[in-house]
Each structure stands twice: as C-alpha cells, then as structure tokens.
Design brief:
Layout lengths: L5 E6 L6 H13 L2 E7 L10 H11 L6 E6 L3 H7 L4 E6 L2 H17 L4 E6 L9 H9 L13 H10 L2
Parallel strand pairs: 1-2, 1-4, 2-3, 4-5
Bound molecules: 4'-phosphopantetheine.
Amino acid sequence: MIQEGVCVYPGSFDPVTNGHLDLIERATQVFPRVIVAVLNNPGKQGFFPVEERVRLLAKACAHLPKVEIDSFQGLLVDYMKKVNAGIVIRGLRAVTDFESEFLMAQVNHQISPEIETLFMMTSPQFAYISSSVVREIGGFGGEIASFVPGSILEDISTALKKAR
Ligand code: PNS
C-alpha cells in the first residue's frame, strides 16, 4: 500500500551539492516525508563510497527533521515499493537534463505505472553546479565553498585533496 505524502529523491549524490540540498529543502515544503536515496551501484564505483555519501547527506540535512537518508541497489521502482512510496522527485537544471530525465521517467512509468515522477526546477543560482564539477574543481585544489553545504565543506575538500 502506497503511503501518501512520502516522496523519494534518488540520485548518485557523489557528493551532495548545494543544488541537491536546495531541492531537498524545497521538497520538505511540499511533502511531510522526504527520503533521499543514494544509488549503490556495484558496477559503477564513483568517487565517494556510498556509506560516505550517506553520511555527508545526513550531516548536510541534519536541520531537516522530515528528511531520511537511505541507499538502495537495483531498480528504483523496486525500492519505491519497498518503502511504500509513490512519488519520485528529480531536479531539472537545464534543457540538457530533460532528455535523460524524460526517458528515465517514461521507463519507470512503463514498468510501474503507479509511480509518479515529479520534477522541480533547480534554483537559478545552482543551475551550473553538479557533483562532477565539485569533484573536478576540488580535485585540482580549487575553491568549492559556494558549491557544497558549509557543514560538509571540510569533509569534501579533505577527501578530494587526499586523492590528488
Ligand atoms: O544522480 P543521478 O546519477 O542522475 O541519479 C540517477 C538515478 C540513481 C536516479 C538512476 O540511475 C536510477 O534510478 N538508477 C537505478 C536503476 C533503475 O531503476 N533504472 C531504471 C530507470 S532508467
């Protein structure tokens, strides 16, 4: 049975950025319960281990009581069923995001029509921010203070510097 008012914001969050956090905060204005779910994809390792991404998200969202952080493996629609949620939230930064997001929403709808995908437009000041930009800039020792939440800036900068 799908629980009303629960949404899932899935993603890689490698690492969480100010753009993600903005979306999470705005989702809490609309939904009483927001589950942020980190994809654990054994086929694609990423930079930060999944447990660290979860930890960073939890730290960045500590001020948001409606938010829970989790991770999942496999299909998103299966995870949605596991947590009895019917709404997927995704952010759109620019038209370039549209094609892949449209495809993903269509595929998910095809295999699980009861699950609805809702899109929120990224706030303009975060439109250029992505996890890969954070890794690229931070990896070369550049300033990432305006890209990631202040509460986890040190964690991310230190990890990126160590990997140089
Ligand atoms: O932050 P990202 O990398 O854009 O997030 C993509 C994510 C995790 C939402 C997407 O890859 C996903 O849901 N993966 C799980 C596998 C799945 O359900 N695939 C079917 C949809 S195409």
